[in-house]
Amino acid sequence: MSYCTGKHIEKSRGKAMKMLVIEKKPVEVVANRFGVNRSTIWRWHQKWLVQNSQIELENPVRRKYLGISPYKYELCKWDIPSLSAAPKRPHTLSDDFVQLVLDVRDQLKRCAEVVWHYINSVLCIKISLSSVRRILKRNGRMEKPKNHKNRRYKGIPRPQVLTPGDLVEIDTIHLFNPITKQKRYIYTVIDLYTRMAYARVYKELKPINSLNTILEAEQYFGFSFKMVQSDNGLEFARYFETRLESKGVKIRHTRLGRPNDNAHIERFNRTIQEECTGNYYLESESLKKMDDKILSYIDFYNYHRIHLSISYRTPAEMLHRL
Description:
Strand 4, helix 8 and strand 5 form a beta-alpha-beta unit. The chain has a five-stranded mixed sheet. It is 41% helix and 10% strand. Helix 2 (27-34) crosses helix 3 (38-51) and helix 4 packs across helix 5 (112-121). The longest helix is centred in the C-terminal third of the chain and has 17 residues, at 287-303. By secondary structure, it is α/β, with parallel strands linked by helices. It is built from eleven helices and five strands; from the N terminus they run H-H-H-H-H-H-E-E-E-H-E-H-E-H-H-H. The chain is elongated. The chain folds into three domains: 9-75; 95-138; 168-320, Ribonuclease H-like superfamily/Ribonuclease H (Nucleotidyltransferase, domain 5), CATH 3.30.420.10. The protein starts with 8 loop residues before the first helix and ends with a helix.
């Protein structure tokens, strides 16, 4: 009740105190009358005694009165004000300290980390990094995020897939060796129209491997690619883009955090892991042996494995029906 913001709560407390002190009503009766707990009435009474402590309510010399002298009731302050609900922060930084942080920020024109390091190391004033960030943010001095103009995502609209090669997706699978802690990378390619797929395995994640996989897949499929879509991985960096663009192949990147943009290749990655490679590899299996195993599975996938999404055809039948 101390933090209640009602308009008449202070007068209600005063009436409760008059009922308790002047009328001598029991605490339980007063509590029921005002709809509060008995302990609340007790706390109100303690605050009433504190705010009237300067008044000598009982005269120990003249004992003709029992309790408080009646004429002193008019001198008492009965209304009990509400306490402030504002949080108490004993470690709040002073205005001068806040201005110091802002001055250092204007002088250096650097980020919050540099301002914090300068204040602690050069000025020898201890302050936390979170305090510096909070001060700069409240005063509008935080650096705005940079506009990355050279981001790899390009706003090229997704084409309609009407013929083979209209849109080809490429991705990588990371296989982990639990013993040696090393990785192998399977580069996978799929054509969205025919569902023809291709895959190769390498020891390193490089743009040159991505380029070689695309060129080999184009030769394996027997038709030219018009657009290649990939995610924003390092293996599809600028070198991969420029080499394909020089060959007349357009590049399209998926949106960040949207794996559904590459749904077909992601589903193929799951299929080849379940039916061929597994989720990890053993050191006893050489790179050439794994590569031969993948190429053998690719032939089975394209020429013998039927797909529900293309009316129970194989990708090769989908290609040859043209």
